[in-house]
Amino acid sequence: MNYRFADRMRKTPRSFIRETLKVTEHPDIISFAGGLPNPSVFPVQELAKTAEEVIREDGPAALQYATTEGFLPLRNWIAERYAHRYGISVTPDEILITHGSQQCLDLIGKIFIDKGTHIGIERPGYLGAIQAFSLYEPAFVPISLEMDGPALDDLQNFLQIKNCGFFYGVPNSQNPSGITWSDEKRRAVADSLHDNKGIFIEDDAYGEIRFRGDIPRPVKTMVPDQVVMNGSFSKIITPGMRMGWICAPKPIMDQLVTAKQGTDLHSSILAQRIIYRYLSEYPIDAYIKRISDTYKCQCDSMVRSIQEHFPESVSYTIPEGGMFLWVTLPENISSMEVFARALKEKVAVLPGIPFYTDGGGFNTLRLNFTNSSHEKIEDGIIRLSRVLNRLLEKSER
Amino acid sequence: MNYRFADRMRKTPRSFIRETLKVTEHPDIISFAGGLPNPSVFPVQELAKTAEEVIREDGPAALQYATTEGFLPLRNWIAERYAHRYGISVTPDEILITHGSQQCLDLIGKIFIDKGTHIGIERPGYLGAIQAFSLYEPAFVPISLEMDGPALDDLQNFLQIKNCGFFYGVPNSQNPSGITWSDEKRRAVADSLHDNKGIFIEDDAYGEIRFRGDIPRPVKTMVPDQVVMNGSFSKIITPGMRMGWICAPKPIMDQLVTAKQGTDLHSSILAQRIIYRYLSEYPIDAYIKRISDTYKCQCDSMVRSIQEHFPESVSYTIPEGGMFLWVTLPENISSMEVFARALKEKVAVLPGIPFYTDGGGFNTLRLNFTNSSHEKIEDGIIRLSRVLNRLLEKSER
């Protein structure tokens, strides 16, 4: 049989990460390539008890079909959390529970993108978003990501494109770069959105995992009608249940609910009730602090080892939160060659190329610090330094 | 703010059912309008125990990110079930776990439908499929559903359209009609698919809930390379966890996995492990028999009441399984008027109109029998008969 598939399937990148991770899964290999939260901090016993209680006490209500919008007490909890943490004022009507933050991106693509709609995305940008949006065949417009946030000229030019859909970004501890936008940049982005009537998709998957600096002010607080905000329980509880949410102004929410209904009717009501009960019965702030403290130590170990061992011509970000840091090599060093050589030394890194929608990123790497012990972090960075030193020597010859 | 949405959002029907069900939720109302499985048979205690054991014993593996394809032991279980029940021979590589059967439809739409692709669908057809596919902007081609399956002329004409994507149907206890395709029709459909190199989406959400007649042979057994089969745990365990699966030939599966990854990364690994452990530790066949026996009694109550009370000019289907039967009124009687008048008598029915992609269905009703007691079924049918008799008298005057 010859099968004929939709055009969009030709435009969607097969996941480079997926293929890469396959070769890095061997237990001998120290992997900085993946992006998993640290399972040692998962609240296993608490969730086991909570799941049992939810099913036994809530009975059929935890197992039957449920509303598309999601479990109201959980949506209330999210609205209150936004008010308390960020000073964002929204009603539960503006919140939809999704199957993970990735589904937010799919639904946003579905309601906003026609074939050829121009979409602004940070350069480098989050790969999950590139994959989700690609399925709706947009024209990506890269907005350079500077150390304090998006390049304002790029953003301004993008927002003046006639067929302009939205700008997507991750202001807090971005994946892949680890960069957090400055308050000044947020204000300037909000002004630009306001002047050009633009829409911003503010992905806040890492906003709660923050171990340095103040809590930054979301763009949502500045131009609330023009911002859709995504959140996730993956980083603050666990990812395996696939629970996230979208917060959007009501006219956008109406379209999201229609799209969600066609997509999978509703999110698991069992998972929603387990998470709500867990949030109600256990001190979530203390748990998030424990995760953040753990990641801070791991991040600090990696930064310290890099400072000590990497060649001076290599630069890197020092994240304020999240799970990744970003390495920029001298321009003539190929991250693909680093990847291949590092693998021989049994250390896995992720070349930055797939995070660029316009090519580029040739000399960049993403390193994950949340899934290796301090010893492995130091050992891995030392091995990687050997690879980098050898490549630099060769390139200088 | 004026928001601009993608074209597809204008083409997607707001759920008529959704709006309808809102007015029928009052506890005073006897509702045949919905489509919920009977919660009295949910294995609540078993699932409570299983969920606790899975999280406690599997630990982080039940809570971490997981593979897009799904939990291998569960995919093995499905492959073995197909072999045993239907004589279908597939490997776990041909099975993808989804967030409910509705997500199968979304992923199928995503990989096969370009704007304007012609899609064949039964007339009347499953509303969830109409909604899911509409988001990809196909041209629907209705294939008349006769009492023994799709009209072969319609199918043949459809398969000869140049820009023809796939034919979607529900051969076992269809929603909304309750019709099960005959073996002869299945054979003829397979021959037509074979001759025209067509693709068939065989939705088998109700295949296990069967209370009359032999197990019919899936079209998948006849032209395996040309059939994608959807299944669901919603009707045989519970729907709230949103667990279903797609079974497709490998080249189609590759595209589905790419689409699934962009859509929500993977299905809840916790739900997959709960379902797998439940299937391993409890006698699922006995449980499915209990559900089927319960539904048979409810179906028989409804058919008996209809035979006794409905005017003779009203015809109806007698299902072999599933959750619905289908009523056809005399041509000049409006189901919308029946709906409005029945609601005043505190009984809710679902007009058949939204199940038609080309208009029509003016004089049809879908009745659900799984969610009312025998007393309520009889009482509701008597009230409905009064409405029908009054409307018929009026129309004869």
From TrEMBL, chains A, B:
GO biological process: alpha-amino acid metabolic process
Enzyme Commission number, as recorded: 2.6.1.57
Domain Aminotransferase class I/classII large: 43-381
Source organism (scientific name): Methanospirillum hungatei JF-1 (strain ATCC 27890 / DSM 864 / NBRC 100397 / JF-1)
CDD domains, A to Z: AAT_like
Gene3D superfamilies documented for this protein: Aspartate Aminotransferase, domain 1 (3.90.1150.10), Type I PLP-dependent aspartate aminotransferase-like (Major domain) (3.40.640.10)
Cofactor: pyridoxal 5'-phosphate
Complex formation: Homodimer.
UniProt-listed Pfam families: Aminotran_1_2
Keyword Acyltransferase: no
Similarity comment: Belongs to the class-I pyridoxal-phosphate-dependent aminotransferase family.
InterPro entries: Aminotransferase_I/II_large (IPR004839), Class-I_PLP-dep_aminotransf (IPR050859), PyrdxlP-dep_Trfase (IPR015424), PyrdxlP-dep_Trfase_major (IPR015421), PyrdxlP-dep_Trfase_small (IPR015422)
Origin: domain of life: Archaea
A Gene Ontology molecular function term of the record: transaminase activity
UniProt entry keywords in alphabetical sequence: Aminotransferase, Pyridoxal phosphate, Transferase
Name assigned to this protein: Aromatic amino acid aminotransferase apoenzyme
